[in-house]
């Protein structure tokens, strides 16, 4: 007999026929009640062991973390909290778990301790819930774009270009460190390297994505991206997953509409599919926030916050308006910002973004038309000659979740910009070609997948929403 998933058993009506379940013991009470979980749902199934007729040896091996197989009948449960339970007639221990040594004890562990045990933390309720939500969100991303006629494009992970021009790249090389081949000038001779040129891990698939949008019309990427920025924050990873749609003939307003519609869709899809997990995570957050002062607690519970985002328009505000608001804000006047806002043109820090979203507008905000010199080279210059058609979406508790723009489609203007910034036009000839042959207005954005998972799960550290986080000084597992 094949075993049935716990999720399906919990949704079944009690009956006299035999059922089989396999999973890991969460707890074993009174030598009688096993709470069994197989990862299919946050809910455990209670398995009632006939301890009088079970060998003492076997009972001893039913410990937290052990893998077991139970056979029995699905009965109406007498206890509170569940409709059905398994009246066990046969139990087999598949894999023992020494209770003295298994780190995931049935008690509250700190998130830091769980990070150190990332290979086992997935056995806890919270991480099971987070990773099921993550999986559902990923599926929703594909479903949204596929329904809308976008094509999924796999852009290269190893590339020779620095899409963001920020220089925060991990080098990819097969050259030896000792006895590295040198040119006559003494520089590393990349001609002798694997690809015959300098390469790195991609920071974004955008530039390659644009070439595909200029042929397939509407495309999206969804893949890993890498940044060697040394920011040890709760919002940054060195390896993260990014979703990058790119659409021919879309202008900046179309781009904002797409991003807003997309985010609302994937949240709704996940709220509909992951009710039990989200209810658990909502409760977890309430418990966690009990230790914080009232003023630092969330104004809304998790599900209410998600509904709020789905039901309300994101506020669209130009950079220039935002600077005015910030300049005249209380924290700026009282010198509470670490970076005071005085002149137009300054880059916004996360303290400013959070003020706008959390204190001033109290809803998601789309900031657009940023100063050209604080944004990437490929953004469409506005008629004013000093701002570009960029947009960032800022979320409460997260800060920037999306960065995007209308792209500079004019060959001459783009070339001029690249020259001014010292970007090698020979290296990016293929990118410039899209502007030489059938150029057109087009736009796209990048959404940091882990920041979305953070928002939906109510977690506060990005290390807790990706299975094995990569951050400065940490590449364990
Ligand atoms: O704003 P970014 O750098 O934009 C780009 O890479 C563009 N090429 C996207 C595009 O237009 N196609 O990054 C996009 C998003 C950010 O808004 C943020 O959500 C996320 O990627 N992100 C990170 N997430 C986790 N860790 C990091 N170190 C991140 N850096 C950016
Ligand atoms: Mg950005």
From TrEMBL:
Judging by the UniProt lineage, the source's domain of life is Bacteria
Q: Name one GO biological process term.
A: asparaginyl-tRNA aminoacylation
Annotated GO MF terms: asparagine-tRNA ligase activity; ATP binding; nucleic acid binding
Write the record's keywords in alphabetical order, separated by commas.
Aminoacyl-tRNA synthetase, ATP-binding, Cytoplasm, Ligase, Nucleotide-binding, Protein biosynthesis
Residue spans making up a coiled coil are none
Task: Report the EC number(s), separated by commas if there are several.
Answer: 6.1.1.22
**CDD domains attached here?**
AsxRS_core (cd00776), EcAsnRS_like_N (cd04318)
**Record-linked PROSITE patterns:** AA_TRNA_LIGASE_II (PS50862)
Where does this one sit in the cell?
A: Cytoplasm
Q: Which reaction does it catalyse?
A: tRNA(Asn) + L-asparagine + ATP = L-asparaginyl-tRNA(Asn) + AMP + diphosphate + H(+)
Main localization, broad class: cytoplasm
InterPro entries per record? Aa-tRNA-synt_II, aa-tRNA-synth_II, aa-tRNA-synth_II/BPL/LPL, Asn-tRNA-ligase, Asp/Asn-tRNA-synth_IIb, NA-bd_OB-fold, NA-bd_OB_tRNA
The record places domain Aminoacyl-transfer RNA synthetases class-II family profile at 131-467
Q: How does it assemble?
A: Homodimer.
Record family assignment: Belongs to the class-II aminoacyl-tRNA synthetase family.
Please state what the protein is called. Answer: Asparagine--tRNA ligase
Question: Which organism is the protein's source?
Answer: Flavobacterium cauense R2A-7
């Amino acid at each position: 007999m094949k075993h049935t998933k716990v999720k399906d058993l919990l949704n079944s009506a009690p009956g006299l026929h035999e059922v089989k379940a396999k999973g890991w013991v969460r707890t074993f009470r009174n030598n009688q009640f096993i709470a069994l979980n197989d990862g299919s749902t946050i809910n455990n199934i209670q398995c009632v062991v006939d301890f009088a007729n079970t060998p003492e040896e076997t009972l001893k091996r039913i410990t937290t973390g052990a893998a077991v197989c139970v056979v029995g009948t699905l009965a109406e449960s007498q206890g509170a909290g569940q409709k059905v339970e398994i009246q066990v007639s046969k139990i087999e221990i598949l894999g023992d778990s020494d209770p003295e040594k298994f780190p995931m004890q049935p008690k509250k562990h700190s998130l830091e301790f769980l990070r150190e045990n990332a290979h086992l933390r997935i056995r806890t309720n919270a991480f099971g819930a987070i990773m099921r939500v993550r999986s559902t969100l990923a599926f929703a991303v594909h479903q949204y774009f596929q329904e809308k006629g976008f094509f999924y494009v796999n852009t290269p992970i190893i590339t020779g270009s620095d899409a963001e021009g920020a220089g925060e790249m991990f080098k990819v090389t097969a050259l030896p460190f000792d006895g590295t081949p040198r040119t006559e000038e003494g520089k590393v001779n990349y001609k002798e390297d694997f690809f015959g040129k300098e390469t790195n891990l991609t920071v974004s698939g955008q530039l390659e994505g644009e070439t595909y949008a200029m042929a397939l019309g509407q495309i999206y990427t969804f893949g890993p991206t890498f940044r060697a920025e040394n920011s040890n924050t709760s919002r940054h990873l060195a390896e993260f997953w990014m979703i990058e749609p790119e659409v021919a003939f879309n202008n900046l307003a179309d781009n904002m509409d797409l991003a807003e519609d997309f985010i609302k869709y994937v949240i709704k899809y996940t709220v509909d599919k992951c009710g039990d997990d989200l209810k658990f995570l909502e409760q977890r957050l309430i418990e966690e926030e009990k230790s914080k002062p009232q003023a630092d607690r969330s104004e809304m519970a998790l599900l209410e916050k998600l509904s709020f985002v789905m039901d309300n328009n994101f506020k669209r505000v130009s950079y220039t308006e935002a600077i005015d608001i910030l300049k005249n804000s209380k924290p700026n006047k009282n010198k509470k910002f670490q970076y005071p806002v005085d002149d137009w043109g300054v880059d916004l820090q996360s303290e400013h973004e959070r003020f706008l979203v959390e204190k001033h507008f109290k809803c998601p905000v789309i900031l657009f038309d940023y100063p050209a010199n604080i944004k990437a080279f490929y953004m469409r210059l506005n008629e004013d000659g000093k701002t570009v058609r960029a947009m960032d979406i800022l979320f409460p508790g997260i800060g920037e979740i999306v960065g995007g723009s209308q792209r500079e489609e004019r060959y001459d203007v783009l070339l001029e910009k690249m020259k001014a910034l010292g970007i090698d036009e020979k290296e990016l000839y293929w990118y410039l070609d899209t502007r030489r042959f059938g150029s057109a207005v087009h736009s796209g954005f990048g959404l940091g997948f882990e920041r979305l998972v953070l928002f939906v799960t109510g977690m506060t550290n990005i290390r807790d929403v990706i299975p094995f986080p990569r951050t400065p000084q940490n590449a364990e597992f």
